[in-house]
Amino acid sequence: MKAVKGKIFFGGVHLKDEKALSCDSPTEVLPEPSTVYISVQQSLGKPAVPCVEKGDKVKEGQLIAEADGAISSNVFASVAGTVKEIKRMTAPTGAEETFIVLESDKSGEKAYLEPLDDPSAEDILGRIKAAGIVGMGGAGFPAAVKDAPKTPVDTFILNGAECEPYLTCDHRLMIERTEGIVEGARLIAKALDVTQIVIGIEKNKPDCIEAFEKYDDIKVVALAKRYPMGSEKHLIYSCTGRKVGLGKLPADVGVIVHNVGTAYAVYEAVKLGKPLYERALTVSGRAVKEPKNLWVKVGTSLKEIVDFCGGESSSPKKVVKGGPMTGIALADYDSYVTKTTGGILLMSGKEADSMEPTPCLNCGKCADVCPMHLMPMQTAFYSSAGDYENAAKLGNTLSCIECGACEYICPARRPLIQAIRKTKAAMRERAEK
Amino acid sequence: MDNTIVISTPPHVKSARTTKKIMLDVIIALAPATIAGLVFFGWQALVLIITSILGAVAAEFVYYFIYNGGFTKKCANAKDVCRKWLKQFDFTSVVTGLILALIIPSTVQWYEVLIGAIFAIVIVKMLFGGTGRNLVNPAAAGRVMMFLSFSLTMTSYVAANFEPISLDSQLFTGATNLSGWLLNTDNPSGHIEWIDLFLGTGLAGCIGETCKLALIIGYIYLVVRKVIKWWQPLLYVVLSAFLSVCMAATVEGAGFDISLFVDYALSGGLMFGAIFMATDYVTSPKGIYGQIVYYVLLAVLTSLLRFYTKIEVVSFVIMIGNLLVPLIDTYIVRKPFGYRRAKKAKEGK
């Protein structure tokens, strides 16, 4: 269907998107790594429980760790070979996680699930759970939980906003695998029993908008280029005009949102029987020689990926896993791809600003750009004095989506997100008591 | 170049604007008004502007130097402290000094403005914690202090360089010409030509406040550079002038004369105050609703005080408004995105 304009929400920032670095390079497949380190914590919620032992032979796509409880996801072997080790290591978030180390035997033997030709709604839901599909946008919420809403829904939104600067893997996916995404979206729509499928794409990707206009059953919404357009609540507002209440789920307004990557994974899981153990990601930044879009196996080390892209062109100031606005800064390349890694950025000193914070001017720019209409400066002010209760109350901190727009705009370079996280943690602790 | 990789919380990209750059923008926006002041009031204005800026910067430096232990251990750390001061210097004191010089008449003595600048920086700004921590606008407070201490020189406005406009053989100046009209409502010739009022030619007043054209250029620059929001000074000036017109109509014998609107809007320090002083980040509310309340409050206070006191009131009003800001910020909290729906759901139960 012909693209329609999306609504514009109040707040948000215009970012220099830097997507030109990598948006024209087609997705390449990274050669199979000899060793992969697969964390069992691949989604929000509880970590999965390993179901293989040291020395076991595994095939590509074989279940190696089983979901534990409702909010958890299955983890699969991304290479065929042997289990070399199961050990505890520190993840970039600072938490200790169990990693399953697999050594590839280069045989490429696959062990897929049974492809489903004409699946019923239950079949699809069952397969989404079995294939360990999580939200590929970055949050990593298990898709099976999302797709079993408690309230009736009528709209399914595909998130193709990709509002983070640098990242282009969803962009490439939307052009190169349009058919698969549409197929996946139809399957999810069938499972949810919704009446309309909407895809929201930012205007800076006209080729993607064009690609999806061909399909008559999909409503294309051309979104304004504004960060954070890809945030669930703002995407829903832009596409449908509905506002998700505080502390409510999208399903409460009759909407379910999935990333385009998730829809593609669903297509693969249902039609090909391939569980989720590979994903597209972007390697970019001005400190990497050849910015690229890659198709990477879960558990691949960043070192291998960066080497494949020609290595560093200059020494990076920051190495970021994820997008520049919400990603995690790493101390080295000793980290591994998970189901939710959308990008690896090597940022030069020019790009990654690391200036010292200066005193807050109370300019209120953070409040002006806040897409949730909060007052970040109040949070920062009160939390620095240890008064978390007032910080949370006056700044409405608990509704914060941590998009980073406030800290981006701050002329005094205040560490606002840090203050917000601190306040949230303190309030959570207080609530538990 | 150091090869260390930095770790921090996201976001990892930041906008290019810093406090320093914003303050430089303000200085650039003040340049037309400064030049107009120099043209109108000559070298006296130049002496005052330089004294005020130097006084403000020096006061900040000395305070910083003492506070950070520049004198301890026989000045052993003096060099370090100086370097640190240079590093954190963000032009806020230059802005304060410049604004202070622009809102006083050219007849003020140089030592008077020096005292004003030192008072503004040391007492009003630094003692409260420096940049971003002061409760009231330092320049406004400095002016109020000077007005109360040196009331003779602070209220004798002289028009230099241009032939002064005389009304009934009496010089009406600044906000005081307002009182002139109000008292002489039976004398319609008491009007200053609007074009003179707009360009400031021959108008007696404060150094930077007379040329409205220069102020409007500064206003447009600030809006284009997104330092201030376009509606903020507009709301203040328009509402205040309109209320003044309404109040003037309540005087016996005077009718509702909308043509007075221009006189009220262009007279005195209202425009300068609205563009450069009321919009000061540090001392104005943070949320958009709080800002609306703040500017309406300023407008109401300005027209009320103008009507009853007949003196130059804008800096007083801004000071009063500044003191109410913490209250506004505490009680007017923005409702988050999606708030209304949550409330409805509660009512539904």
- From the alpha carbons, calculate the radius of gyration of chain A and give it in angstroms: 21 Å
Helix content of chain B: 55-70%
Strand content of chain A: 15-25%
- What about the largest sheet of chain A? 6 strands, mixed
CATH topology of the domain at 114-272 in chain A: Rossmann fold
Q: Biggest interface, and residues per chain?
A: A-B, 74 and 46 residues
Tell me the distance between the termini of chain B.
63 Å
Order of helices and strands of chain B: HHHHHHHHHHHHHHHH
Please report the first level of CATH classification, the CATH class of the domain at 114-272 in chain A: Alpha Beta
In the CATH hierarchy, what is the superfamily of the domain at 114-272 in chain A? Answer: NADH-ubiquinone oxidoreductase 51kDa subunit
In terms of quaternary structure, what is this? heterodimer
The biggest beta sheet of chain B is recorded as:
none
Catalogue the unreliable spans of chain A: none
Radius of gyration of chain B: 22 Å
Instruction: Name the overall outline of chain A.
Output: globular
Distance, first to last CA of chain A = 53 Å
SS summary, helix count of chain A = 13
Q: In CATH terms, what is the architecture of the domain at 114-272 in chain A?
A: 3-Layer(aba) Sandwich
The total count of strands of chain B amounts to: 0
Numbering strands along the chain, what is their spatial order in the largest sheet of chain A?
2-15-14-18-16-17
Give the strand content of chain B. Answer: under 5%
Summarize the entry for a quick read.
Chain A has 433 residues and is an alpha/beta fold. In chain A, 27% of the residues lie in helices and 20% in strands. Among the domains of chain A are: 114-272, Rossmann fold (3-Layer(aba) Sandwich); 365-432, no CATH class.
